Structure to design on (370 residues):
């Protein structure tokens, strides 16, 4: 039987490299992007014949959040191993399909699409191109042999964040808001809410959560992942209502939260922030001193694993699910707040993490991976 072009391409050698990404960020759509070789010399003979690609959502690769985390993970792989790469940065939802189409036309072996919002475009292009592989982050709706979901049970780590937020609040009120009311956002808000409730149960307290009602699955949203002004307004409103720990789940919109906290604290407040996706202390351009902790998704590591398997001809379309147990999700260090978080609280967080992993504590969101 005649081999497919994909099989012929891989028969040139054993492939065990990891996907890299070019430094050039594309902003135009509809044309095939130029490929870029890795700066590192590959020790794997098949790497030179392999092309790995990535497409961002509208937040772009500098969103200080999940696009950036995915991008940086791939850049690390590029530095270590050599393959050809292509990438496209989406400016709006209308860019998703043209950018993906440019990857297909460019002969990508594997294309990573970053985000739930790219699901429709990924499904369409994957169906039309069964010999090419795709991996989509934060979506598990596509049932296809050539699509690998990379998903995270972020409610587990957000539960820990809610617990420590409640335990460090001086006002008895904390808050969260999202960019859009979609599963990959609300899962953070559910976990955060439940963590606060667990703290209340354990301590006999009544810390309130503003911005999210877990029972109705409704709350405060900006409606997008770009408008930082809306993030600032939401945060200012929360602070005025008494909240002193705020968790934005909105990508770059969260930078508006930092601006609001800066202003509030300069006027005598003592507000703190819980960041999401990446460790905000290491990624935000300013205001890291206000970040209590972050709910982290280790996206780079997951993509590295998926691509390594693809290069080794061990493609598997079963979902990769990041959890506390496999360290796919985590609570980031407290950094500047480390001395302000008591040893007792840290010990409790360690025990809660262990209990979530063992199943003693059930953390369940309607949006948790099934």
């Amino acid at each position: 039987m005649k081999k497919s072009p994909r099989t012929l391409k891989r028969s040139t050698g054993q492939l065990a490299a990891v996907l890299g990404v070019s430094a050039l960020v594309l902003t135009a759509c509809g044309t095939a992007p130029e490929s870029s070789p890795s700066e590192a010399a590959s020790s794997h003979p098949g790497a030179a014949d392999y092309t790995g690609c990535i497409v961002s959502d509208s937040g772009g690769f500098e969103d200080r959040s999940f696009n950036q985390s995915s991008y940086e993970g791939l850049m690390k792989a590029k530095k270590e191993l050599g393959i050809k790469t292509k990438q496209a940065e989406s400016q709006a939802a209308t860019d998703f399909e043209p950018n993906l189409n440019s990857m297909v036309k460019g002969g990508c072996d594997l294309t990573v699409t970053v985000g739930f919002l790219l699901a429709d475009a990924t499904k369409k292009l994957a169906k039309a191109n069964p010999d090419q592989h795709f991996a989509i982050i934060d979506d598990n709706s596509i049932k296809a042999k050539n699509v690998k979901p990379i998903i995270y049970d972020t409610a587990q780590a957000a539960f820990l964040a809610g617990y420590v937020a409640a335990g460090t609040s001086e006002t008895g009120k904390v808050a969260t808001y999202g960019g859009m009311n979609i599963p990959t956002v609300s899962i953070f808000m559910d976990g955060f809410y439940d963590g606060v409730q667990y703290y209340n149960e354990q301590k006999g307290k009544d810390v309130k959560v503003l911005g999210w009602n877990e029972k109705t699955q409704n709350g405060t949203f900006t409606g997008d992942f770009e408008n930082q002004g809306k993030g600032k307004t939401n945060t200012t409103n929360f602070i005025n209502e008494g909240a002193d720990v705020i968790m934005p789940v909105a990508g770059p919109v969260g930078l508006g939260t930092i601006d609001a906290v800066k202003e509030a604290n300069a006027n005598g407040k003592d507000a703190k922030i819980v960041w999401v996706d990446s460790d905000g202390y290491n990624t935000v351009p300013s205001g890291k001193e206000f970040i209590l902790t972050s709910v982290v998704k280790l996206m780079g590591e997951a993509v590295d694993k998926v691509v390594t398997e693809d290069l080794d001809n061990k493609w598997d379309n079963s979902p990769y699910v990041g959890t506390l147990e496999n360290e796919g999700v985590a609570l980031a260090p407290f950094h500047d707040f480390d001395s302000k978080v008591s040893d007792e609280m840290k010990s409790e967080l360690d025990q809660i993490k262990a209990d979530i992993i063992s199943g003693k504590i059930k953390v369940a969101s309607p949006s948790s991976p099934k």
Q: What stands out?
A: The chain is about 35% helix and 20% strand. The two ends are 38 Å apart (CA to CA). Confidence is low (pLDDT under 50) at residues 1-34. The first strand starts at residue 36 and ends at 37.
